[in-house]
Amino acid sequence: MNARGFFTVPPKPSRSLSAIALGGLVALAGCLTTPPSTMLELSRLSPLEADPGAIRLAARLPAPLLVRDGDIRLRISFDGGTDATRLVEEYAAIIVDAPPGIPGIAPGSAGERTYVAALSGEDAASLRAVQRRIRDWRAGGVEGEGQLAVSATACAAGPLPDGPIRLTTWMRTDPDAPFFVLARGVDLRRQIERRGAPADAIERCASG
Q: What is the pLDDT of residues 129-167, one digit of tens each?
């Protein structure tokens, strides 16, 4: 059975693919932020066949919000119905240099910053082992559900802009393919306020 048959990205329609945790508050991207073209790309994605070393994740935020090594994370899980066929692994990606004009990522506006992250060599090797483990379970007749999710955290290095605080995220699993949007223009301020907290509750970046 192809990996697309049991992996869901996002995990379930009621949950988001992309999230940002700010100062302990989690702002989830709503379903309407995922464009139809993304759903087509996700339907083609085979998480068990993707080369972990080629995976790239990207996030765009207002410049006062800083994304650091480990802030963008990739989570893979599988539940085959028993403790022996159940796993959850999460990898903290590292920020990598990204030249301007990245295919699939439109230029940002003034006051925005775009980050691109990749798995470390050690984490890429670990994810390959996880992929093999799940493939072996499947070959042995184990039925189950897998999930692949992307999240990001950030800290505030300065005053946040008035109005919406927009987050857009992208993903790429093939170095020869363009990035595709995971969630576009999520208003973090609205998401945070819906949880009963002010936007200034966002964690401040540590000095020095």
A: 999 999 999 999 998 888 888 888 888 888 887 888 888
CA distances from 141 to 6, 136, 138, 207 (A): 13, 9, 5, 53
The answer to whether 136 touches 85, Cβ cutoff 8 Å, is no
